[in-house]
Specification:
Blueprint lengths: L8 H15 L6 H8 L3 H7 L3 H24 L6 H17 L8 H7 L6 H23 L5 H23 L4 H22 L1
Helix pairs in contact: 1-2, 1-4, 4-5, 4-7, 5-8, 5-9, 6-7, 7-8, 8-9
InterPro entries: Homeodomain-like_sf (IPR009057), HTH_TetR (IPR001647), Tet_transcr_reg_TetR-rel_C_sf (IPR036271), TetR_C (IPR011075)
GO molecular function, one term: DNA binding
Organism: Amycolatopsis thermoflava
Amino acid sequence: MAGKKQFDTDAALDAAMIQFWRAGYADTSLDDLSRATGLNRSSIYSSLGDKDTLFLRCLDRYAARYGDKYDAALSRVDSDPVAAVRAFFDVTLDRIADPALPDGCLIAQSAMAIPALSPRVAAHAKQALGRQRLRLRAALKTSGLTDRDAEAFAVHAAAVNQSLAVMSRAGTSPAQLRAIVGVTVDALSQTLRASA
C-alpha cells in the first residue's frame, strides 16, 4: 500500500535555514529551497508553508538555537559578569568560525534587508533582533549595573555582536573580531569596577 512520501521536517527546516542564511531572503527562490531541502514546490507549500511562512519558521529556529546558547553563556552573570559577556560573544565567534555554517548571522542579514521584506517578515526580523538586547539587558541588570548602564551596555553589546557577523562576512580575521570583543569586555569591566 503506497502512502505519502515521508521526509524529515527538522532536516528540511535546517536545510532551508542554511539556504536563507547563505543567500538571504530576497535572493532565495522556491527553486533554491527545493534544491536545498530535496522537496518539490508543492511539498514545500503543503508541509512547510509559503516562502514567508517558511522563512519565519527558519528565523525562529535560528533564534531559538542560538538564543539558548546565549542564555547559557549569560547564566553565570551573577558570579562573573565579565566572563559571562565574554562567553556570550564566544557563542557568536564560535558560530562564525564553524566551517560547516555560512558566514554572518541570519538575524543580522534579515535586519539589513528589512526595507525589502514584507511588513510581516520585517516585523518578525526586528523582534528577533530586539530579543538580543533584552537578553543582555536582563543579564547585565543582575550584575549590579544601574538601569541606565545596563541598557547602554545591552544596546552596545547587541550592536557589537551583530557587527561581528557582518564583518566576518566581509572577511575580517578572527583575531580582529576577538580584538573588537576585547574592547567591549574591557569597557564593561571598567564600568563594573567603577560602580562597585
